[in-house]
Amino acid sequence: KEKGVDDYTGTYQADYKGFSDTEYLFGGTSIDREAGKEISITCTLEVTSGKAKVFWISGADEPTTLLETTGTYNDTITLPDGGNYIGIKCDNFTGSVELNIE
To answer: Is the backbone of residue 27 left (phi > 0), alpha (psi -120 to 50) or beta?
Structure first.
């Protein structure tokens, strides 16, 4: 994991083997960012076995699934005030994830 200009940006690359847990990779509780409230997300997920879900959660809202099958996700998100986190939830996941947030 390499951090960007703040806790909301950076790159993450990992290979998983039989991993079951939730990891919060980027985000925080303050959205006072010099770069503004928009972030650009590029994610590539490769699922060999098990399940993996890359998600975005904002405040008390239910998590929004960005990607949960082998493939690529590309979008710009406007972060609302409050806590915002990008993470991955895994259930016996073997595979890889690459995440780039600017």
So the answer is: left
d(CA 76, CA 15): 25
Residues 30-84 have pLDDT tens digits of 766 677 789 999 999 999 999 999 999 998 899 999 999 999 999 999 988 888 9
Q: Are 74 and 41 in contact (CB under 8 A)?
A: yes
- Model pTM? 0.92
pLDDT in tens, 20-33: 999 999 998 876 66
Residue 64 tokens, joined = 């929004």
Give the separation between CA 19 and CA 14, rounded to whole angstroms. 11
CA angle 97, 100, 102 (to 5 degrees): 160
3-state secondary structure of 33: coil
Spatial neighbors of 93 by CB under 8 A, at least 6 apart, are: 16, 18, 19, 20, 47, 49, 50, 51, 52
